[in-house]
């Protein structure tokens, strides 16, 4: 394999981010169409179905995405090109067999799923969505392959096209048929088209991925590596969705709709995730070659990009909370404002829990342990806090668990890199930025209130205030951000 060159990595990330901004706008538009076009009951059914898909996808992951990164990007020379192709075919076969098995399980359990959510209308929807987790994971399989072969831009462009097509199909399904079933049928058809596209394109540019060309000796080794990561992914998904599962069981479908929207994780981490996509292979290389100083510097600047961007987006939304909820969903969802605020704060913390270092150093079992502990804590706290605080309780529980989990991940990452906290977290810079953020936010909060007093359109005011806030942050901290980007680009292997 070719040596990885860090030159231009930051600018690749910027390109991915620009595309993601467009795809995120379309995702917001999708949610808006669904929130306005569907009743609370239908939207609740749609949300319950999404929970089933989300958990099923996580079950199917089996840690195989991480396995592709681990084996396909191996630079030790242990595996030949032919063996890496065999590994890819083996992973694909495992994924396909597991996917078919899960389809059968979901179909068999449809009555139990509907009974759990106390929603008879969910039965037919579950039949329709049973195949979607398998399709989603096979698409994810190809996405990982394209990134591993240095074709991240292919994924970005694909995401752009698909997101636009999803908006069109959802709009038509809602306004012509007004049916959750038709919505999911259209999404599944798009998934099938994506899978065909990826399969053809990858075979032309690299090699044909052949199902059932399985090397059983390699399969054992792959599963040994992937199983802990699979458990981690599953427990992570359950931790993410446990509040919705508890709300779904202890409340009604309409409440699920409100909670699902107001707890929706907004993409504040869009920029940092773009960097993560590009940087993961490099971090893995540095750690495998014991270049810890480069790993520390790269991770430190990854975190800096994180809080400079995620905190800016998060605080910008907090300044205009009510307008944001009405814009994103509709005024019908304003009752969930406390949930919305708690999840914004949660997102501002969660970006730092990216398990870059633990994954790169093969600490899959440890990730599994951390994730299982988080799931247990979240399950207990969700039930207790729901009884104490009502619908807001699970959101409080999620924030508490996220904070603890993030601290644990950062602490272990520091240990692996044989570093100290101050080596990866610039405390002085964090406090300085946080102070400036609060001061600028307070100014624009007052500006927002004043403009609304003049009976101006609330959404125009929202855009002006958020845009002004973000611009002010960029102007004040532009030199720091520029230094971070230059540092990342200066790292070469």
Q: Tell me the number of helical segments per DSSP (H or I, 4 or more residues long).
A: 21
Q: How many individual β-strands?
A: 0
Work out the radius of gyration.
Answer: 23 Å
Number of domains: 2
Could you state the order of secondary-structure elements as H and E? HHHHHHHHHHHHHHHHHHHHH
Q: Determine the N-to-C terminus distance.
A: 13 Å
- As residue ranges, the low-confidence spans are 1-8
Largest pleated sheet = none
| Percentage beta strand | under 5%
Structural class by sheet pairing and helices: mainly alpha
Helix content: over 70%
Task: Summarize this structure briefly.
This protein is mainly alpha-helical. It has 2 domains: 1-262, no CATH class; 265-493, no CATH class. It contains 21 helices and no strands.
List the helices and strands and how they pair.
Elements: H1 9-37, H2 40-61, H3 64-72, H4 81-108, H5 110-116, H6 122-129, H7 132-148, H8 152-177, H9 180-205, H10 216-250, H11 253-262, H12 270-288, H13 292-319, H14 321-328, H15 337-350, H16 356-360, H17 364-389, H18 393-416, H19 421-424, H20 427-453, H21 458-490
Helix pairs in contact: 1-8, 1-12, 2-6, 2-7, 2-10, 2-11, 3-4, 3-7, 3-10, 4-7, 4-10, 5-6, 6-9, 7-8, 7-9, 8-9, 10-17, 10-18, 12-13, 13-15, 13-20, 13-21, 15-18, 17-18, 20-21
